[in-house]
């Protein structure tokens, strides 16, 4: 019952984007840009609450089905002295010779055949009790979620319409940022590729350079990155860009030029 619950909770935490916004680059953040402890704690609470939806749904299904709970509790109704199945000597002797019998029955305290197939009355009772727990879990979770959401919104400094606008802006900002980043990366990658293939010939060192893996612990690229940083103060992302900068090429800034032209035209108007 609880193994999949823990697995679903872990998966929910892993796929949550806020988890990696908090964790990624945590030890190398500039001091002024680090999250406060209050923000960090609130964000982790939100991650845990959001990741708990799937585990709670799983528990509700498990308890509502009743099979797992019946298996978990059936030994309490299967004492060897009371179970009908173990009063049959033939059945008792067949199970007593089994290797796993002592482990399942705890040295004969419980009737192992009864644990697998309990009395219908006892099975119905356990399934009904399991369903009660399922509905109780659903009601408690629903009431708790309602109270948390209500308190959160009552403490919000924004009104409902303003909060909706803020959330809309966040979504649009993310989309626009991704689009502009993709466009800028495309221009940068095209410039680096043209700079490499624009040469008349290539040396073995050139091919080795652009074929490397930019690992943090790679001594070669760590040294080249330092050389390039001293020359241009550029942030190096890949071996090709590092090669391009080390060769003396400059990365154009079309967006900055376009911005300057627009500023000049505005001044003329």
UniProtKB/TrEMBL annotation:
Which InterPro entries would you find in this protein's record? CALHM (IPR029569)
For this UniProt entry, which segments traverse the membrane? 6-23, 44-64, 132-151
Q: What GO cellular-component annotations does this UniProt entry give?
A: plasma membrane
Question: What is one Pfam family matched by this protein?
Answer: Ca_hom_mod
- Where's it found, cell-wise? Membrane
The superkingdom of the source organism is Eukaryota
Q: How does it sit in the membrane?
A: Multi-pass membrane protein
Q: Which GO terms describe its molecular function?
A: monoatomic cation channel activity
One GO biological-process annotation of the entry reads: ATP export
Keywords attached to this Swiss-Prot or TrEMBL record, sorted alphabetically, are: Ion channel, Ion transport, Membrane, Transmembrane, Transmembrane helix, Transport
Q: Which family does it belong to?
A: Belongs to the CALHM family.
Record protein name field = Calcium homeostasis modulator protein
């Amino acid at each position: 019952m609880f193994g999949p619950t823990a697995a679903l909770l872990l998966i929910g935490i892993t796929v949550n984007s806020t988890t990696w916004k908090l964790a990624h680059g945590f030890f190398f953040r500039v001091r002024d840009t680090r999250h406060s402890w209050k923000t960090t704690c609130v964000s982790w609470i939100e991650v845990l609450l959001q990741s708990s939806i799937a585990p709670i749904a799983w528990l509700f299904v498990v308890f509502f089905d009743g099979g797992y709970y019946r298996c978990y509790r059936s030994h309490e109704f299967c004492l060897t002295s009371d179970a009908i199945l173990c009063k049959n000597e033939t059945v008792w002797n067949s199970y007593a010779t089994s290797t796993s019998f002592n482990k399942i029955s705890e040295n004969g305290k419980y009737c192992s055949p009864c644990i697998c197939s309990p009395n219908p009355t006892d099975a119905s009772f356990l399934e009904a009790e399991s369903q009660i727990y399922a509905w109780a879990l659903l009601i408690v979770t629903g009431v708790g979620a309602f109270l948390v959401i209500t308190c959160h919104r009552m403490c919000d400094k924004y009104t409902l319409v303003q909060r909706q606008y803020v959330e809309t802006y966040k979504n649009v900002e993310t989309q626009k940022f991704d689009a502009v980043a993709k466009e800028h990366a495309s221009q940068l990658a095209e410039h680096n590729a043209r700079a490499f293939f624009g040469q008349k010939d290539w040396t073995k060192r050139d091919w080795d350079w652009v074929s490397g893996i930019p690992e943090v612990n790679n001594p070669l690229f760590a040294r080249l990155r330092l050389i390039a940083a001293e020359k241009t103060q550029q942030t190096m992302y890949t071996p090709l860009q590092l090669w391009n900068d080390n060769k003396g090429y400059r990365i154009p800034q079309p967006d900055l030029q376009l911005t300057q032209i627009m500023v000049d035209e505005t001044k003329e108007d």
